[in-house]
Amino acid sequence: MRGLWTTARVRAAEDRVLARVPAGSLMRRAAFGVATVALEVSAGRRIGLLVGAGNNGGDALWAGYYLRRRGVAVSAVLLDPPRAHAEGLAAFRKAGGRVVDRLTDVDLVIDGIVGLSGRGPLRPDAAEHVAHLDAPVLAVDSPSGLDPDTGAVHGPAVHAAVTVTFGCLKPVHALADCGDVRLVDIGLTPELAGPDLVELEVSDVGAAWPVPGPTDDKYTQGVTGVAAGSATYPGAAVLATGAALLATSGMVRYAGAAAEDVRARWPEAICTGSITDAGRVQAWVAGPGLGTGLGAEEVLRTVLDAGVPVCADADAITMLANNPDLWDARDPDTPVVLTPHDREYERLVGEVGDDRVAAAKRAADRFDAVVLLKGHATVIAAPDGRVLVNRARTSWASTAGSGDVLSGLIGSLLAAGLDPLLAAGCAAKVHVLAAELAADGAPIPASALLNAIPDAIRAVRPLTVP
Ligand SMILES: NC(=O)C1=CN([C@@H]2O[C@H](COP(=O)(O)OP(=O)(O)OC[C@H]3O[C@@H](n4cnc5c(N)ncnc54)[C@H](OP(=O)(O)O)[C@@H]3O)[C@@H](O)[C@H]2O)[C@@H](O)CC1
Ligand SMILES: [K+]
Fold first, then answer.
1. CA neighbours closer than 13 Å in the CB half-sphere of residue 217
2. Which of these, 78, 108, 385, 390, has the minimum number of CB atoms within 10 Å of its CB?
3. pLDDT, the chain, mean
4. Residues 242-257: tens digit of each pLDDT
5. What are the binding residues for K(+)?
6. Binding site membership for AMP: which residues?
């Protein structure tokens, strides 16, 4: 698991460390880390600095000083000369660093425009310099122009090949593209309590993924119920059921109008035309392709009343938005996972806004449910305040039917008894991994993503006896 801390928490921790270490030592440790990574990634020995008005610029200037001491030719543009970090600038000049009007003929640019204090897009003068760069960029702490707490970007911003950050990761490093992120230890760890966000790593997902043991049978792994699809949209039922079947060794019961289609594709699923005949399950997936008519509402009511965890997706979310009385069917102790994309979120709660973490938390709190807000960085919030983030490295998963697969995965993990937040987090990770594996550089339909689920699970599981 990788923890991420918001800037307010980082500053508080930094203040506590600064109270007991010599002035400037944190910055020099940070800058030494920047210089070390710069030497490693730069294709040549000419490095340029973009230096802003604060300590982020100070880091860049001190990094320039260390690079000069290694014989690198270093030039710097000062965006606000009177406010450039005084000691850093003096050290940089003394070491032979040159102050220039524009960066030309450099192999790497170090972005020290703005860091933790950055808000909004790059200002025009900084944007002008960034627009004319023709070398890769190493961002100090975070790529300038990206909000460090939300990853939001509204205009010109630095596109970093590498980001070197200090003490701990910040939300931007999981929510937005920061290139290859490197963490330099500056002694903050003892001052940091639990993180604000957590990113699951492959090993976490592998360790949590349910696999059958010697005493397991088809029931002990959990029975997933799928209430999805309709005569108009049978495909959603086929995809969600397939994902549930492939995710674990448990059983899957399908109930709905697409029973014939599901049976034809998945003979191992127990199919029935009506929710009332479905039999016992340990979790329900409700909504994909279900429709929003009275019959679909009745299905959702039945599922919410069943006393087992529910993953409510797609049309189920629309129905809950249109008719909040449907929530009354839910026993307050029944865990619910909601999986909205932005438009569904708007119907359910209102504007998502720039702060996707806050948006997911708001909905989790309002509905006392785990809320998985879909996006390039998917944010998953639990009502108890825990938040997971899962950033996709590619966008191949954004294709029709992909959400149906995700809800089937979540339902299957819920049925296996995983904590709902972990179920959603593990499913999201395997989902994007399956998309990457299936796509392998070319667009894919959701059925190809579905077929790659076993490979994705193999990829996250620790190597064990076959
Ligand atoms: N604290 C520590 O111990 C350590 C801190 N460290 C380092 O300090 C960094 C934080 O430094 P910081 O707080 O001085 O602010 P910083 O991010 O440099 O911003 C400077 C000024 O930029 C401006 N600005 C704002 N938005 C902007 C935009 N979009 N585009 C352009 N400009 C914009 C705004 O200026 P103003 O509004 O006043 O004109 C703001 O005041 C941190 O990220 C890390 O690198 C490390 O050395 C480790 C030890
Ligand atoms: K920066």
1. 1
2. 385
3. 96
4. 999 999 999 999 999 9
5. 56, 111, 144
6. 374-378, 403
In our burial notation (b when 16+ CB lie closer than 10 A, e otherwise), range 10-44 reads beebbeebeeeeeebebbbbbbbbbbbbbeebbee
CA of 56 to the centre of ligand 2 (A): 6
Query: For residues 315 and 400, is the Cβ–Cβ distance under 8 A?
Result: no
2-196: CATH homologous superfamily?
Answer: YjeF N-terminal domain (3.40.50.10260)
Would you list the domain boundaries of the chain? Answer: 2-196, 202-460
Confidence at residue 464, expressed as pLDDT on a 0 to 100 scale: 59
Instruction: Report d(CA 358, CA 422) in Å as an integer.
Output: 19
- Which of 37, 55, 149 to probe ligand 1 with, by most ligand atoms within 8 A of CB? 55
- pLDDT exceeds cutoff 70 at 58: yes
Q: Nearest-CA neighbor of 166 among 145, 146, 192, 201?
A: 192
Task: For residues 65 and 32, give the distance between their C-alpha atoms in angstroms, rounded to a whole number.
Answer: 9
Asked if the model's pLDDT at residue 229 lies above 60, the reply is yes
Which two three-digit tokens encode residue 355?
């702060």
Burial 53-70, CB ≥16 within 10 A → b, else e: bbbbbbbbbbbbbbbbee
Q: What is the ipTM of this complex?
A: 0.96
Q: Taking residues 353-380, what's their average pLDDT?
A: 97
Q: What is the pLDDT of residues 108-125, one digit of tens each?
A: 999 999 999 999 999 999
166 lines ligand 1 (CB under 6 A): yes
**In this structure, are residues 153 and 114 in contact, taking their beta carbons and an 8 Å threshold?**
no
